[in-house]
Amino acid sequence: MSELGSLLKSTREEQKKSIQDVVDDTRIRENFIKIIEEGRFKDLPSYLHAYGFVKKYAEFLKLDYENVVWPLFAEECPKEGAPAQSKDITQEEYTPSTTETSFLENEKKSSKKNVTVILLIIVLLLIGYGGYYMYSSSILNNTITIGSSKTVSDTPVPATVVEPEPAVTFAGDNTSDNNSYFNYYGTSIYADNNTDNITINAYDNITEPAYVDPLFAQTIPTPVVLSPEKVKVKFSENCWFKYSTDKGERNEVNARRGTEIEIEFDKTFRIEIGNAVAVSMEYNGQEYSNFGNRNVVRILNYEAQDGKLELIRR
Questions:
Q1: What CA–CA distance (Å, rounded) separates 30 from 60?
Q2: What is the DSSP letter of 147?
Q3: How far is Cα of residue 137 from the mean position of the Cα atoms in its chain?
Q4: In angstroms, what CA-CA distances link 236 with 5, 26, 181, 260?
Q5: Model's pTM, two decimal places?
Q6: In what order do the strands lie in the sheet with 286-288?
C-alpha cells in the first residue's frame, strides 16, 4: 500500500471532499486521481505527469508539500536513473522542465505576449493615423518640389479681402420710400425704375438694359389671413355660461331660454356651464349636446380638428 496515496486519500476524506471535487478544482482526470491514491505512479503517462498531478493534488488539500509530500513522492516515484532514497535527492533534481502545474504560468506568459501584440498594433495604428493626418494637413504643403526646379513656398498667401458694399440708409426713418431712394442715388439712373434700354455715354453709346434694383423688382406675396373658427351656442333654459378662447377673448353670460351666442376662436376654446342640460353647440354643421343633467356644472375644453370639435381635457 502506498503511503503517499493513503495520505492523500485519507486527507481528502477527512476534509469531506469527493474525487469529483478534486477533478473540478485541479482538472485532473478521475482515473488519474484513483491511480495516485493507489500509489500506482508508473501507470501515469509519464514522470512529468506524476510529479505535476501529485503536487497539484497536495496543494488542493493544503498539505505541506516540501516537508511531507515531496519526501514520500521522491521515495515512491524516483526519477529514472536517480537514487531512490529521498535524503540523497534534492527537489531541484526532480523538478521537471514542464509539468501540469506550469500550465497557468504558460497561460500568463501567453497573455503577456497577447498584450504585447495588442500594444504593438495600437502603436502601428497611431503611427498610421499620424502619417495620414500629416499628409492631409497643411504641414506637407510647406515646400513641395515639382519636377527638378519648381517649388511651392510655405509662405501663407493672404486671403482676398472683399470690401462689403455700404449699407443704404433711406430718408424718413429707414423706410423704403421710392422718392427718397431715387433722390439718394439720382433720378437720372433710377427714374421710373423701368427696364427700357438706355444709352450710356461712358460706354461709347453701347445700348444695355437699364439696372433694375432688386428691392423693388421682387414680388412680395400677399399675406394669407385665415378666417377664425366659429361655434354657435344655444340655451334651452336659463343658464350661467362663461367662455374663453385662444384669441384672448373672455366673456361671462347669464343666458335666458332661447338665447344664442357665437364664439370665435383660432383652434381651442374653453367653456364653463352652470346648467349642463340647457346648452347645445353647433359647429361646422354638427351639433354637440348632452353635457349632463340639470343644474350640473361642467368645465370643458375643445379643439378644432379636421372639421370637428374634439374634447381635449375634462
A1: 15
A2: T
A3: 29
A4: 109, 95, 64, 9
A5: 0.31
A6: 260-265, 229-235, 279-283, 286-288
Q: Which residue(s) pair with 243 in the sheet? A: 251, 271
Question: Which residue has cell 346648452?
Answer: 279
* CB count in 10 Å sphere of residue 245: 20
The Cα–Cα gap between 35 and 44 comes to: 8
Where does residue 231 rank: exposed (0-12), middle (13-18), buried (19+ CB within 10 A)? buried
Instruction: Give every CB contact of residue 78 below 8 A, 6+ residues apart in sequence.
Output: 84, 89
Judge contact between 198 and 189, C-beta under 8 A.
no
Q: Helices marked H in the chain — which ranges? A: 3-14, 19-26, 30-37, 47-61, 70-76, 91-94, 103-136, 178-185, 187-190, 214-217
| Cα angle, residue 112 at apex, residues 107 and 113 outer, rounded to 5° | 95
Q: Cα separation of 283 and 267, whole Å?
A: 12
CA dihedral 49, 55, 57, 61 (to 10 degrees): 180
Instruction: Give residue-wise pLDDT tens across range 270-311.
Output: 999 999 999 999 999 999 998 888 888 989 999 999 989 999
Give tens-digit pLDDT for 71-104.
Answer: 999 888 888 644 443 334 444 444 444 444 444 4
Tracing cell 510647406 back to the chain, one arrives at 142
State the burial class of residue 92 (Cβ atoms within 10 Å of its Cβ: 0-12, 13-18, 19+). exposed
- Tracing cell 354638427 back to the chain, one arrives at 286
- CB of 282 closer than 8 Å to CB of 245: no
Is 78 strand, coil or helix? coil
On whether the CB atoms of residues 80 and 47 are closer than 8 A, the answer is: yes
Q: Which is nearest to 144 in space by CA: 154, 134, 133, 157?
A: 154
